Structures are given as C-alpha cells and as structure tokens.
Amino acid sequence: MSSTEYAAAPAITLTIAGSEATGGAGAQADLKTFQELGVYGVIALTCIVSFNPADNWNHRFMPVEPQVIADQLEAIQTCYAGSLDTVKIGMLGSPATISTVATALGNQSWKNVVLDPVLICKGQEPGHALDTDLALKAQILPLATFVTPNHFEAESLSGISINSVEDLTEAARIIHEISGATVLAKGGVRLAGENAVDVFYDGTTTELLSAPKVGEVAVSGAGCSLAAAITAELAKGATPLEAARTAKAFVTAGIKNRVASNAPFDALWQGGNRAA
Ligand code: PXL
After folding, report:
1. How crowded is the C-beta side of 242, counted as CA atoms within 13 Å?
2. What does each C-alpha distance from 230 to 17, 117, 124, 245 come to in angstroms?
3. N or C: which end of the chain has fewer CB within 10 A?
4. What's the CA-to-centroid distance between 204 and ligand 1, angstroms?
5. Annotated domain spans of the chain
6. Alpha-carbon distance 32 to 101, whole Å?
7. pLDDT per residue as tens digits for the range 61-93
8. Which of 86, 96, 92 is CA-nearest to residue 42?
9. What's domain 12-271's architecture?
C-alpha cells in the first residue's frame, strides 16, 4: 500500500517518546507523521523537554515518573492487545525510564521495534547521559528490529569515527552485527558533499539513500520524523527497504517545506508532501 492510501482499519502504532514543547521533535513529530501516513498513533510519554531561550536554547529536561510510564504502557498494551505489534522508541532520557520501558516491551511480542537511539539531549549532565547511553545499549538495542542512528549516535554505537559515506557504511555493518537489527545510519548534513546520504543495511542489502541537501543546517524533527515514517510504513506492511525509501522522501519534503521559528533551527513540516 502506498503512503497516500488509507486502510479502513488503521494499523495501531505506538511511540514511546518525549514531548518537545515547540512541536518540532519528539512525540509531537511522531504523532503528526503517523497521522500523515495513515496509521493510528498512540503515545506513552517519557519526559517533557522545554528549550530554554535564555540559555542558548538548551534543553530543560523533566522525566515522567517511571510508574506513570508503566501505567501508560499498561493502558495501551491492554487496550490494543492482539492488534498492537509495532512500536517506535524515541527519547527515553534516563536509566530508570529505560528499565521501565524494557520491562513493558518484554510483556508482549512485537513485529517491528524501531529504535531512534537518542543518546544526547543538549543541556543534560554528561555523566547522566553516559549512564543513559550504556543502559540503552544494554537493554533496548537488543530488542530493536530497526535502528536509525544519526552521525553522532552511529559513531557512539559502532565505536568508529565517521568522516565519509564509506565510514558510515562500515558503522551500519557494525551496528547490525551488534544488534541484529536493520540499520539506517544517517549522514544528514554532517558529511561533506551536495547530498544528504543515509546508509541502509539489513545484513545482506546495502543501499545508499541520497537526496540533495536542503541547506547546511540541521532541521529539528528530521530524525524523529524519519524513524516515525519508517515505523508507520512497517506497520502498514512495507518491507524495511521500502519503508526506508518512503521515509527518506517524506523527510526530504518536510525539510523543503520547513517551519521557521525564533529558535536557531527550523522545524520539519510533516505535511511537506502535500505541498509537493
Ligand atoms: O531530536 C531528538 C529529540 C527527541 N525527543 C525529544 C527531543 C529531541 C530533541 O530536541 O526534545 C523529546
């Protein structure tokens, strides 16, 4: 089914993610992407991020109590037992949240577990971020069927430094070996050249997904929307490679039609395809 056709009974698609108040990233981006692509989105909220305009737009980070995260997931998983088999995981933000989410994920079987391995939130205390990285790698990465690291996350997960598409391809291979998951490693604007290049690797197929860069400045919500679009397409039955291609086109259209704000970065518009 193409992304513009809507099923009579939409696929239920869960995101476990944080709120980013200005609407560019996080659960807001996920839900808008799900709606655009014709799946029924539900959210378990893990944290609330508020940019601080008075402090260089750093993130103020407020975790949701682990019990409240567990409660949300209990409600969702009970409501949709038997019909929910696709989940996207975004920002978790703390080791306690990661344990709670890992436990809830273990309570049922899943067809698609799409992990956007959000490792660093600007303004978080670095020691705390390291604990979070280790917990994510130990407890969530092994559950993932599809993982979408950006340049920084791909370096962290693979342990190699990435300065070229060849390096990014090697990192995608290493992350696949570690996790068993299909990998879409994103070069975005971080690698030199005219194109934003992402590398797809599923253990057999390597494919470069390339689109002309739209400026040289990263846009808020691109990573979240890409992973959410992959999630929506997988929920509708696309293959991982088809899902990655559709998601890349969705994000490219969203960046072309981005929303300006007074923050130093624009926000991706999930309705970008409608303007095309
Ligand atoms: O882009 C990563 C991201 C994910 N989730 C939340 C965020 C951000 C970045 O701002 O705030 C909640």
Report:
1. 11
2. 15, 14, 28, 9
3. C
4. 31
5. 12-271
6. 23
7. 999 999 999 999 999 999 999 999 999 999 999
8. 86
9. 3-Layer(aba) Sandwich (3.40)
Checking if the pLDDT of 145 tops 60, the result is: yes
pTM: predicted TM-score of the whole model, two decimal places: 0.95
Measured from the Cα of 118, ligand 1's closest atom is 2
Q: Using the atom order of ligand 1, give the atom closest to the CA of residue 24.
A: 10
Smallest CA separation from ligand 1 atom 11, residue: 20
* 94 alpha carbon – ligand 1 mean position (Å): 14
Q: Is the CB of 133 under 6 A from ligand 1?
A: no
DSSP calls for 173-228: HHHHHHH-SEEEEE-TTTSSSSEEEEEEESSS-EEEEEEE-SSSS--BTHHHHHHH
Quote the CA–CA distance of 100 and 84 in Å, as a whole number. 19
Q: 116: Cβ below 6 Å to ligand 1?
A: no
- Show the tokens assigned to 145: 């069927």
Query: Residue 218 burial (CB < 10 Å; 0-12/13-18/19+)?
Result: middle
For ligand 1, atom 4, name the residue with the nearest CA: 26
Q: Which of 130, 143, 177 is nearest to 16 (CA)?
A: 143
| Ligand 1 contact via 24 beta carbon (within 6 Å) | no
The CA–CA distances, whole Å, from 122 to 51, 56, 125 equal: 9, 10, 9
Q: Is the CB of 187 under 6 A from ligand 1?
A: no
Indicate whether 166 pLDDT > 50: yes
Give the chain's radius of gyration (CA, Å). 17
Q: Is the CB of 49 under 6 A from ligand 1?
A: yes
In the 8-state DSSP scheme, what is residue 267?
B
User: Ligand 1 centre from 118 Cα, in Å?
Assistant: 7
